[in-house]
Write a structure and sequence with these properties.
28% of the residues lie in helices and 24% in strands. By secondary structure, the protein is of the alpha/beta class. The chain has a domain at 72-224 and 243-290: Alpha-Beta Complex (2-enoyl-CoA Hydratase, Chain A, domain 1).
C-alpha cells in the first residue's frame, strides 16, 4: 500500500502501520490479519480499494460462465445505433465471450452504417474495462482515448488501434474490431449513479471526442484503477493505484457529471419512459450525420 497506493503521498503511514499491527496482534494464521488489512485499506480514503478472502477471490476471478444479460445492440429510428454495455468480471473466457457478443451487438445495431450511436453505460457498474473498450473501439475511433495516471504523475496511455484497445502500445488481447471507415459518427453517452469504475473509465474515453455528448446523471465517483495483489493464502488485495484521465489530459477522481443532466421523472405516468434515451436520440437526430433531407 505504501509503495503503490494512489493516495500514498497523503497518508500518515506511521499511524496506519501502528494501528494495523495493533489490530493484528496475536494473529496465528493469515486469516487473523484480515480485519487489520481491511482497516488499513479504509484508511487510504480512495473509496475503491477492496480485499477479497480466498474463497471470494476464487469465485470472482475463476468464473468461467457469467450472465451477459443487458449486453444489447439494436437500431433506433433515424439510423441511430443503440448499444447497452453491462459490467463484466471473471476469467479470460468470460471476457472473450463478452467481446464476441458485444461486437455482434454492434453489427446488429447498424455497424458502420449507423449515422450515430447511443452508448448506454448506465448498467456498467464496474469489473474490467478492456472488454468494453474492445466492443466500443470502432465507435470511439482509432487514436489515444485516455490514460491512467499514478501518484507521481506517470501516465499509461489507452489507445484504440484497428478498433481494439491497447495500453502503451501493447494489445489487450483481442483481434481487430473492424474499425468504421469514413468520418467518426456522433455519439451520445448515457451515464447514471451506478456507472462505476470500469464504466467510468469508458465514459472518460469518450470525453474530449468530437461530436460527443453525455446524458443522464453523474457517475458513482470511482474513476480509478485497481491492481490485484495475491497474498500467501490466496486472498487478494485490490489496491487503487491510478486515476483515469481523458484524451485532453484532464484527470478524474470524483463523480463525473454529464453534459446534460436528466433525472428520471418519479411520477407513475412516466414509469415506462426513458427520458435519458429520448434526449440522447433527439440530440443525435439534430446532428449533421443523422439529419435527413
Amino acid at each position: 500500500m505504501e509503495d503503490h497506493s494512489l493516495l500514498r503521498h497523503q497518508v500518515d503511514w506511521e499511524t496506519v502501520r501502528g494501528k494495523a499491527f495493533t489490530e493484528a496482534r496475536g494473529a496465528r494464521k493469515a486469516a487473523d490479519t484480515y480485519g487489520a488489512i481491511r482497516s488499513a485499506l479504509r484508511s487510504l480514503g480512495d473509496g475503491h480499494s477492496v480485499f477479497w478472502e480466498p474463497d471470494q477471490a476464487t469465485e470472482v476471478q475463476g468464473t468461467s460462465a457469467v450472465s451477459l444479460d443487458g449486453l444489447e445492440g439494436r437500431p433506433l429510428k433515424g439510423g441511430v445505433g443503440y448499444l447497452s454495455l453491462p459490467r463484466v468480471q471473471g476469467a479470460q473466457a468470460v471476457y472473450d465471450q463478452y467481446v464476441r457478443r458485444g461486437r455482434q451487438a454492434v453489427a446488429r445495431a447498424g455497424g458502420a452504417e449507423a449515422c450515430g450511436w447511443v452508448v448506454d453505460l448506465r448498467p456498467q457498474t464496474g469489473g474490467t474495462m478492456w472488454p468494453t473498450l474492445a466492443v466500443v473501439g470502432p465507435i470511439l475511433g482509432d487514436g489515444e482515448v485516455g490514460a491512467f495516471v499514478d501518484a507521481d504523475g506517470n501516465r499509461s496511455v489507452w489507445s484504440i488501434e484497428h478498433g481494439s484497445p491497447y495500453t502503451d502500445g501493447r494489445p489487450e488481447g483481442w483481434a481487430d474490431g473492424r474499425p468504421f471507415t469514413g468520418s467518426a459518427p456522433p455519439v451520445a453517452v448515457l451515464t447514471g449513479r451506478k456507472t462505476a469504475s470500469a464504466g467510468e473509465a469508458v465514459a472518460v474515453a469518450f470525453r474530449g471526442r468530437s461530436d460527443t455528448r453525455s446524458f443522464g446523471e453523474q457517475t458513482s465517483g470511482v474513476p480509478t484503477g485497481n491492481e490485484p495483489y495475491r497474498l500467501s493464502d490466496g486472498a487478494v488485495l485490490l489496491l487503487t493505484k491510478v486515476k483515469d484521465a481523458d484524451r485532453t489530459g484532464r484527470a478524474y477522481d470524483a463523480p463525473i457529471p454529464p453534459d446534460e443532466e436528466i433525472v428520471k421523472d418519479p411520477r407513475p405516468v412516466a414509469a415506462d419512459r426513458d427520458e435519458v434515451l429520448e434526449a440522447a436520440q433527439d440530440w443525435l437526430l439534430r446532428q449533421t450525420a443523422c439529419r435527413r433531407p
